[in-house]
Amino acid sequence: MRTILRLAGIGFGVLLGMMSQSAIARDLLVTAAKPDKLYVIDAKARKIVGDFHIAGANNHITTVVPSPDGKVAYVLVNRMETIVGIQLKTGREVFRANLSSPGERVKDFFAFTVTPNGKELIAYELPTRLGSSEYQVEEPRFVVFNTKGGTHAKPIRTFPAPRRIGVMLARPNGRSFYAIGFDLYEYNLKTGALMGSRGVMNWQQPAHGQPDLLAFWPVTEPSGAFSSPIYSEIQKDGAGDAVTALMTLDLKTGDLTYRDFEQTTALIFSTVLAPDRKFAYGTYTTLTKVDVAAGKLAKRVNNDHTYYSINIASDGSEVYAGGAMCDIAIYDAGTLDKKGDIELPGCADQALATLRVVHSR
Predict the structure, then answer these.
(1) DSSP letter string over 290-322?
(2) Most buried among 12, 40, 57, 307, using CB within 10 Å?
C-alpha cells in the first residue's frame, strides 16, 4: 500500500511538473504574409505553431494588432478595406469589419488599435462616395467597433478625424487614444473630442527643419512606449546636415521626446525600445542599435536583405526583424550577432506586415 502511495505521489509530482512547464509564459511571434496567411511562431523553439488562412484577404495584408490578452490578432486585409480578428490558438475567425459598403469605398491607411480592456476596436477611415459619374472624397473619420460584434461587425460610434494618420495607439487608462500623422493627436474614446495635439512634423526643435518620418508599424511591446526614427536638417556652422533622431512616446505618461543620435548615414524604417528602454533597435537595410540615454549610435550591422518591421523579446535578449520577404531574422540584442532565421512556408511574402511579440501561456 505504501509503495502504491509513493508511486501515486511520484506520478502526481510529475503531473504537477508537466503542468508547471506547460504554464510557463513564452514569446510568440505573430506575422502575416501574402496572399492570405497569419503565422504564429514559438520564438524560443524557432517553430511555426500556427499557420492560418484569412478569408477574403485579397492578396493584401498589412497591420497586425494583438488583443491585450494575447488571444486574438486583428489584421488589416483586402486592400485596407477589412479588419479580421483571428484566434491565435485555433485560427478561427471571431471578428470581421468590412469598412466599405455599396456606394462608399473606405480605406484604412494602416491605422487602428484595440482598447486595453479588449472590448473595442478603433479604426481610421478614409471614405469616398462612388457616384454614377464622379467620385466624391469625404471627410476622414474614426469608427469604433465592439470586438464582440462577430463576423459582421458594425460601427457603434463615429467621429471626425484629421487627414494623414498612419498609427493609432490606445492609452493604458482606457479613456483616450493617440493618432499619429503630421502631428500627435489625442482623442477621448467615448466622445471623440480632441484632447490635445503636439508637433511631430510641425515640431519646434531649435535649429531643426521640418522633419519627415515613416510611422506605419504600431509596435509598443514590451516597453509600453512607441518609437520611430525621424529625420530632419539641422543648421550648423552655416551648413545644413541631415540628422536622425529617435521619437519616443510613453503611452502611460504621454511624454513625447526627440533625441538626435547620428548624422543620417543609413535609413531606418521602424524601431523598438528594449524593455528597460536603455536601447532602441531599428531596421531597414541595416540593423541599428541606439544608446537612448547617451543619444548616440551604439552599433550597426548589415542585414541580409531589407526588413521593414522590428520587435524584441519580452526579456530583451533577442531582436527580431521581419515585415518583408519570407523570413524573420533573429539577432542577439547585446552584440547584434545573428542567431538564425525562421522561414515562412512556401517563402510567403510578409510585405509590410507588422511583426508582433505576444507574451503568452
Answers:
(1) EETTTTEEEEEEE-SS---EEEE-TTSSEEEEE
(2) 307
Name the average pLDDT for the chain.
Answer: 92
Show the cell assigned to 214: 515613416
Q: What is the pLDDT of residues 81-117, one digit of tens each?
A: 999 999 999 999 999 999 999 999 999 999 999 999 9
**pTM surpassing 0.85?**
yes
**Cell 541606439 maps to which residue?**
290
Per this entry, what is the length of the chain? 361
Rg (CA), the chain: 22
Q: How many other C-beta atoms can be found within 10 angstroms of the C-beta atom of residue 1?
A: 5
Q: Quote the CA–CA distance of 179 and 118 in Å, as a whole number.
A: 18
Per the CB < 8 A criterion, the answer to whether 289 and 279 are in contact is: yes
Please enumerate in sequence order all residues whose Cβ is within 8 A of that of 229, keeping only pairs 6 or more positions apart, or say none.
213, 244, 245, 246, 247, 267, 268, 269, 270, 271, 282
